[in-house]
Design the sequence.
């Protein structure tokens, strides 16, 4: 039986409703950021209201808001870029030179990302105190390590997919090893680089516990601000502030998964499953 | 200039570059090690050393609250963990949380994944999928807060509907009967989209030719599921379930923000428990021992995950 147009339309409508249903809780907080504080606390909840920009302007005018955003952007972009450079070098070596311990090393590095953050934050905390690393440098190093397992896994997967014949052709024509790495192999793994960059960016952007425990004024990011800055002077949660900060914060991951949707699968599985949805 | 000349010059240039020290280094056996050096630096400095330190500390009685210096007590911390009824209940709570969360997410995710299977020509598909996948890329801190606003007893929107339906309100996050379910519900909201994603990937890994053959042979829907889709799709689905299991077992931020373990300790999962021992009671020795145990659990999950991954490579050549 051929599906009629009407049936297809109903089918698509159902899919859209499912998608919107999952988005509703986020939408609710986005709406709250355009409500006056009184409208947020209104009983019964207001579904239709006069939108205002005053919450967002108030959030931006607070002295710490802009630094939080700058910290978030700076720490995530720098640490992820560093992690990708480090991982690319290692991924090439592990892919092209056959070390006996390769699989074991890959396993160990992946398992570091599977441990609850609370488990290894204790020794890191002591170590950072001892070395006085609880500053931007220390947190940057930590986030680089945090981004390495996934970058390594995804880049090794992609480099394994580039035939060694390309390398050999390069060598025959007199190219050096570094030339082959950066001019022959690198351009062919660009999707892997993009996926690793985008998804590690989101993961670091979202990280909270390490930031909360190890962070100082130079390293506090938006999730920290959300968790700590949410209580207003009266002891109640300052929902207008939380809502507008969340709106600003949600923007980056949302735009990223819209623009880079075809990397979502590889991104959410640490590079172990490839394909498109 | 003749071609012969150019060729000669080219060969000379190649020969010259082959003699350069950089070139010699690139061809030496130290070069691959040099490529691995940066990653090994990070791995050793920020993983191996802290882990060894942690294992060491787990054999000491060492608290930042007491002035006594660390003293070696062998496996006493582990014995204490074994005898700690409170910890066992946190473990069993986490187990219930993981089983329920991953179970429900898998069932819902597979059903919705099948629903989304035929959507490749849907108008605005990219935007719809973005809306669908947003919950899993929002930090648990933020989603915990979103849901606190929704669950709020006086002006929360959930209670508005609850009151419309039942006439009374429920204080979801502080009521002993509801808090666990309320947190579980948020986890299901966050991660069902992930299982939809994995189901779509699993369905995508079924070869088109086999699906068409099943169509031609007029196989029933159950026969198709069992003989065509399951043999190919099961690997990715299992990987999804395992990744979710690992992640659900780590859940800390969400409960920290939503309930802080309460009311009582109804929502105190093992990650939060460890955090409390380490940073509220500052008991370094004991919490290190607990961390070692969590580390071992994480490593065994990772081994299972890689085992399934290799099984798939072996069977499917993917």
Sequence:
């Amino acid at each position: 039986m051929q599906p009629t147009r009407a049936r297809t339309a109903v089918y698509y409508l159902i899919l859209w409703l499912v998608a919107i249903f999952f988005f509703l809780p986020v939408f609710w907080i986005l709406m709250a950021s355009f409500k006056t504080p009184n409208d947020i606390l209104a009983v019964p909840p207001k579904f239709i209201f006069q939108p205002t920009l005053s919450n967002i302007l108030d959030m931006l005018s607070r002295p710490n808001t802009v630094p939080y955003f700058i910290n978030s952007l700076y720490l995530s972009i720098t640490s992820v870029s560093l992690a990708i450079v480090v991982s690319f070098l290692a991924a090439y070596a592990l892919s092209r030179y056959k070390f006996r311990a390769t699989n074991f090393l890959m396993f160990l590095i992946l398992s570091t990302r599977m441990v609850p953050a609370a488990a290894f934050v204790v020794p890191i905390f002591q170590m950072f105190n001892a070395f006085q690393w609880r500053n931007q440098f220390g947190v940057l190093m930590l986030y680089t390590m945090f981004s390495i397992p996934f970058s390594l896994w995804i880049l090794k997967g992609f480099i394994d997919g580039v035939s060694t014949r390309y390398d050999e052709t390069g060598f025959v024509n007199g190219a050096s090893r570094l030339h082959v790495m950066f001019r022959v192999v690198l351009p062919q793994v660009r999707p892997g680089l993009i996926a690793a960059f985008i998804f590690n960016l989101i993961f670091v952007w979202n990280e909270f516990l390490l930031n909360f425990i190890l962070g100082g004024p130079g390293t506090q990011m938006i999730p920290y601000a959300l968790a700590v800055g949410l209580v207003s002077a009266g002891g109640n949660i300052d929902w207008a502030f939380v809502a507008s900060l969340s709106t600003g914060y949600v923007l980056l991951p949302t735009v990223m998964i819209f623009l880079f949707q075809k990397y979502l699968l590889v991104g959410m599985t640490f590079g172990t499953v490839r394909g498109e949805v | 200039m003749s071609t012969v000349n150019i060729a000669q010059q080219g060969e000379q240039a190649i020969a010259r570059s082959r003699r350069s020290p950089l070139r010699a280094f690139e061809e030496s056996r130290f070069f691959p090690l040099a490529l691995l050096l940066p990653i090994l630096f990070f791995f050793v400095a920020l993983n191996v050393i802290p882990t060894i330190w942690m294992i060491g500390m787990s054999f000491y009685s060492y608290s930042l609250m007491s002035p006594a210096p660390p003293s070696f007590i062998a496996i006493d911390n582990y014995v204490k963990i074994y005898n700690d009824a409170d910890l066992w209940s946190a473990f069993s709570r986490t187990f219930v949380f993981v089983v329920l969360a991953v179970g429900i997410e898998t069932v819902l995710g597979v059903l919705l994944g099948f629903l989304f299977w035929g959507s490749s020509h849907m108008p605005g598909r990219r935007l719809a999928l973005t809306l669908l996948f947003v919950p899993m890329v929002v930090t648990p801190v933020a989603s915990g807060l979103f849901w606190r606003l929704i669950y709020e007893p006086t002006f929360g929107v959930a209670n508005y509907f609850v009151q419309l339906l039942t006439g009374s309100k429920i204080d979801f996050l502080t009521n002993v009967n509801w808090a666990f379910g309320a947190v579980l519900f948020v986890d299901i909201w966050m991660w069902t989209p992930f299982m939809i994603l994995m189901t779509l990937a699993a369905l995508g890994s079924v070869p088109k030719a086999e699906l068409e053959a099943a169509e031609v042979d007029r196989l029933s829907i159950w026969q198709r599921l069992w003989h065509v889709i399951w043999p190919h799709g099961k690997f990715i689905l299992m990987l999804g379930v395992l990744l979710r299991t690992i992640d659900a077992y780590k859940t800390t931020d969400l409960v920290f923000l939503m309930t802080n373990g309460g009311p009582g300790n109804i929502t105190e999962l093992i990650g939060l428990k460890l955090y409390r021992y380490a940073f509220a009671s500052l008991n370094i020795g004991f919490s290190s021992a607990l961390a070692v145990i969590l580390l071992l659990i994480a490593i065994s999950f990772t081994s299972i995950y890689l085992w399934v991954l290799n099984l798939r490579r072996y069977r499917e050549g993917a």
Chain B is about 75% helix and 0% strand. The two ends of chain B are 52 Å apart (CA to CA).
